[in-house]
Design a protein that fits this description.
The protein is of the alpha/beta class. Helix content is about 45%, strand content about 20%. The chain has ten helices and eleven strands.
Length: about 300
């Protein structure tokens, strides 16, 4: 058996399609089929159930797939050991949570491009849970995501925190008169939140469940500015990062609502496979710029109506 046959098999299982696997590998579909057939002949077993759509592995094929992923990771280690000091080329696949993208993605990509002009960077946004799955499936080289500080990761991944973000509960200015509230007291107002899968919403949901409360969701919306606009219009409470709140055009129309039993914090995590070879240096630069952008944004924001001191 050959390494390219292993790569072909892993890609087919990941894509669940010969056509998509061929596109991913830069090969023709017949070439991928030949590699699969050679691999099956070398092992003496059928790895794919060809009667299903999308393509799926047989029971033996699933075991073989997991072992092939181990082989690929070990090969990555070997390649890193013998790598030279030549600059990285090819493509760096970056996944970014939307809040991170709003604050730091543009500057981070510019910094990587300036330092490594021959490296192509392909970036996509998504929920942190989705990005984590893509990393585990080998579809991303690195992801910057927002997850709890006590988050644990798969043994195949390396993760480090770039910093911590304070979140603020916000309401339309003047809507909430009392200085401090509890989550139970906020139930009557309801919430304007991102769709399910958002780390902020997940944290709130866990806090409510711990108190025996159900989430009262008034509106679902994507994007911090739209969420703050809806909160400013009186549609409910919002939950947003303080740096984005301070920078928002709706900041003067909102009040931060201190919650005595909910002190939301979330970490910015940079997560990658344990071995990246020549891509490690651009990943380090990407992480450094993201961390710096968040730090600069926190320190540069004016203390508008006590927004920063309220947290």
């Amino acid at each position: 058996m050959k390494i390219d046959e292993i790569d072909a098999y892993v890609t087919v299982i990941r894509c669940q399609s010969l056509q998509q696997a061929a596109l991913s590998l830069g090969l023709t579909q017949p070439a991928v089929t030949r590699r699969l057939q050679n691999f099956e002949e070398a092992l003496g077993v059928e790895l794919l159930d060809r009667n299903t759509r999308p393509l799926k592995a047989t029971a033996t094929g699933r075991v073989v797939y997991e072992q092939c992923r181990v082989i690929q990771r070990e090969l990555d280690v070997l390649r890193e050991i013998v790598a030279t000091d030549t600059p990285p080329i090819g493509t760096l696949r970056v996944g970014v949570a939307q809040t991170v993208a709003d604050i730091a993605l543009g500057e981070a990509l510019r910094a990587v491009k300036a330092a490594y002009p021959d490296l192509q960077t392909r970036a996509s946004t998504g929920w942190s849970s989705q990005l984590l799955e893509q990393l585990e499936d080998g579809e991303l080289d690195v992801a910057a995501m927002l997850l709890p500080a006590n988050k644990t990761f798969n043994d195949t991944l390396s993760a480090r925190s770039l910093g911590r973000i304070k979140l603020a509960v916000v309401a339309r200015k003047g809507l909430v008169r009392k200085r401090t509230h509890t989550l139970a007291e906020c139930q009557s107002l309801g919430w304007v939140l991102n769709p399910d899968g958002c780390g902020f919403r997940d944290g709130l949901q866990r806090a409510l469940t711990g108190l025996g409360l159900a989430l009262r969701l008034n509106l679902e919306t994507l994007g911090t500015e739209l969420q703050l606009q809806l909160v400013a219009d009186g549609h409910g409470l919002g939950l947003v990062p303080l740096p984005l709140l301070a920078a928002s055009s709706y900041a003067d129309m909102l009040d931060v609502v201190p919650i005595s039993d909910f002190k939301p914090l979330i970490d910015i995590w940079l997560v990658q496979p344990r071995v990246l070879g020549k891509l490690q240096q651009p990943v380090e630069r990407l992480g450094a710029v993201i961390a710096r952008q968040f730090k600069e944004m926190r320190s540069a924001q004016p203390d508008r109506r006590g927004l920063q001191s309220a947290a």
